[in-house]
Amino acid sequence: MSEDARLERLLDFLRRSPTPWHATASMARRLEAAGFRRLEETETWHLSPGERVYVTRNDSSIIALQLPRERLSALRLIGAHTDSPGLRLKPHAAQSAAGWLQLGVEVYGGALLAPWFDRDLGLAGRVHVRHADGRIEGVLLDVERPVAIIPSLAIHLDREANNGRAINAQTQMAPVFLQGGGRPDLERLLNQWLEEQHGLTEVEVLDFELAFRDMQPPARVGIEGELIASARLDNLLSCFTGLEALLESDGRQGAVLVANDHEEVGSASACGAQGPFLGDVLRRVNAQLGEAGEEGFIRLVQASRLISCDNAHALHPNFQDKHDAAHGPVLNGGPVIKVNASQRYATNSATAALFRDLCRETEVPVQTFVTRADMGCGSTIGPITATELGVPTLDVGAPQWAMHSIRETAGARDVEYLTRVLTAFVNRDALP
């Protein structure tokens, strides 16, 4: 398969996925086009060997399952997350200052704030409406044009702006939205956009979860197009590569792709990795296709392996001292095994050995990241899922720059590298 075609699919996925709800919907569309059947958690499931199914929770987390053709005895799991740091509207967002309607925001996750200034911002998310007949419905909204901006203060009025000035998200980051407007204008615009995008006319907006998005489209960058620049590479790139691997696999083995919401805020939710979503689904599947009972479920989990995919910190050419000298992953140098002695990453020597063997088998270069001993370390869904489920796990990811910025950068070749290894993992006959 052409690497350029895969990268075009990635760029399209990034464009169509400004929020976790949109990302989940985009993945569901591809799964259904490939023959996956949607399951509803509130209904009785009837599963067959060799079938391909998927289920969502909160419309922002998704689990896709490739059921084995033979008895269910082990699963090859790929984990990722659908959410990214950013700015989300407060429930009563409308506020006025100096003749402008602004929208109050909350910071979601550990966002880099400075890059949000002076960007063309759109608006996207989920809106719940009540129809004239009393029916309540949730619909996706994506305003794909610049409707707001957070203007910087001129350096003439803040001579210390380049000397590490702190940014106050409450008082300095409310996007400018409409000159001379007020709260009724926000309500009017929401109804206007719902009519334009969904043909909804006689509805009442009950509530919403909306976020600002960068309107600069994802792009290939560099003289030879060796870079990918986009919003939300962390962690939609992993969602994409996991989905590509599942769809390109030979379909013989039991495989799972789980993409959870809320990783950037700790994963503690009904649809997050610390919640019961994955365990609920696997227990229902095992009850029909595996060894019945709690002992049978534990045997299934211990025979399975999880590769938690979340992007890794690449060596920055302007800040090389921020990496351990022996552990500086480079862009386009292959996927990165992430290691932390304090279990911020779930990798151990046994699970790392499996991944290294997969890389050898697929002729993919592999790198290792360990944070400096005098710096803190982030985490992923890997340790959380391993703790909740007990499945042997490792953490890997494509290297990237500017993690948690409004625009991040990754290597174009690493997309192919990671997809190739994950596909081999899903197809692997025996797990060590």
The portion of residues forming beta strands comes to: 25-35%
CATH architecture of the largest domain: 3-Layer(aba) Sandwich
* Uncertain residue ranges: none
Average pLDDT level: 96
The strand count comes to 20
- The termini sit apart by 29 Å
Net shape: globular
Write the layout of secondary structure elements.
Layout: H1 3-15, H2 20-33, E1 37-38, E2 52-57, E3 61-66, E4 76-81, E5 86-97, E6 100-108, E7 121-131, E8 136-148, H3 169-172, E9 176-179, H4 183-198, E10 203-214, E11 219-221, E12 227-230, H5 233-248, E13 255-260, H6 277-289, H7 293-303, E14 305-309, E15 312-313, E16 336-338, H8 349-362, E17 367-369, H9 381-389, E18 393-397, E19 399-401, E20 408-411, H10 412-427
Parallel strand pairs: 1-2, 4-13, 4-14, 14-18, 15-19, 16-17
Antiparallel strand pairs: 2-3, 3-13, 5-6, 6-9, 7-8, 7-10, 11-12, 12-20, 16-18, 19-20
What descriptors fit this protein?
432 residues, alpha/beta, Aminopeptidase, Aminopeptidase i, Domain 2, 2 domains, 9-stranded mixed sheet, 5-stranded mixed sheet, 10 helices, 28% strand, globular
